[in-house]
Specification:
Helix content is 31%, strand content 27%. The protein has a seven-stranded mixed beta sheet, with helices on both faces. The chain has a single domain, classed as Rossmann fold (3-Layer(aba) Sandwich), CATH 3.40.50. The protein starts with a helix and ends with a strand. It is globular. The chain is α/β, with parallel strands linked by helices and 202 residues long.
Length: 202
């Protein structure tokens, strides 16, 4: 599937009805989701693979991976987001397995299966400091390769945090466009510079 075709399909994925600022619940824009997934597909890490989406939200990355031929397990702790993800998957004719659990729950390590590839857009830690760390920990435990969206200028922190466990093998710059969502947003649209990092487990 071509990048533009995937992007157009993902435009139909519904976002959060009642997003939480504390949880940093922003819908991953379709162009950014498609870019990450297409990059992973070209590397042979999506089609025919077992793919885990950690913190799937309303399912845009998980659904995109399924459209590209992956066997997808999506993990999310928000029940409403899970229901929207299920509806989105149904609307686009995708079959994804959804697990409702918090990544930090002690049972998560047992309930979340291992896979070939992790895809994720974890919290950046803007509201809760170090909110991205449990996602990195889980990703390194569950798969050999991870494609993640992170705040710009995070590369050095990630390299230090995963030292001895994994390494960043490639990175690309991108943008995350956030529409006015919460009371503290002063502009109709806000462009946040982000980085897509590919992390290989050692």
């Amino acid at each position: 599937m071509k990048l533009r075709q995937l992007e157009m399909l993902l435009q139909g994925v519904s976002g959060f009805n009642n997003p939480s600022a504390e949880r940093e619940q922003y819908q991953t824009p379709a162009p950014l989701a498609a870019r990450l997934l297409h990059m992973a597909m070209l590397a042979g890490d999506i089609s025919g693979r077992t793919v885990l989406d950690l913190g799937c939200g309303t399912g845009i990355l998980a659904i995109g991976a399924a459209l590209l031929g992956a066997d997808v397990v999506a993990v999310e702790d928000d029940g409403e987001a899970i229901r929207i993800a299920e509806a989105n998957a149904h609307d686009l004719g995708c079959n994804i397995r959804l697990i409702q659990i918090d990544i930090t729950d002690p049972q998560a390590m047992t309930l979340i299966p291992k896979g070939d590839t992790v895809i994720m857009n974890p919290p950046f830690g803007a509201q809760t400091e170090h909110a991205d760390r449990p996602f990195l920990d889980m990703a390194l435990t569950k798969a050999d390769i991870t494609y993640g969206i992170f705040n710009a200028r995070s590369e050095q922190f990630i390299r230090e945090f995963i030292q001895g466990r994994g390494e960043i093998t490639s990175s690309i710059l991108a943008g995350l466009t956030i529409p006015r969502t919460f009371w503290f947003h002063s502009r109709d649209r806000h462009e946040i510079p982000v980085e897509i990092h590919v992390i290989k487990r050692k």
